[in-house]
Amino acid sequence: MDIQQADNGKKGKFFVEINGKPEAEMTYVYAGKHTIIIDHTALNDALRGEGVGYKLVEAAVSFARETELKINPLCPFAHAAFKKHAEYQDVLIK
Question: How many CB atoms neighbour CB 23 within 10 A?
């Protein structure tokens, strides 16, 4: 499954398309130069339980590491993922 990213410098999203249709997305907004806020995660019901939501969070974590950003996971799903995965703590805003 290919995770894609769209980013305009103010906001962005990580998403999955299947047959040209958006099936999963996690959106974020920039909060200053060094932080993104994950504000929403949505999945098509058929993808629930397949780990797609966690793959979206992993993509955001990789992006944050590559660009030296911190993440504020306001979205309940992303917040829970950060609590569950200690390896994400390096990009979690304190």
Answer: 17
1-13+33-76 CATH choice from 3.40.50.720, 3.40.630.30, 3.40.980.10, 3.40.50.2300: 3.40.630.30
Strands lying side by side in the sheet with 21-30: 4-7, 11-18, 21-30, 35-43, 70-73
Select from 92, 38, 24, 70 the least CA-distant residue to 83: 92
- Tokens 């993509």 locate to 59
- Residue whose entry in the numeric block shows the structure tokens 């995965």: 85
DSSP annotation of 89 reads: G
- pLDDT tier at 53 (50, 70, 90 boundaries)? very high
Q: Are 71 and 35 in contact (CB under 8 A)?
A: yes
* Element housing 58 (H / E): helix 52-67
pTM: 0.94
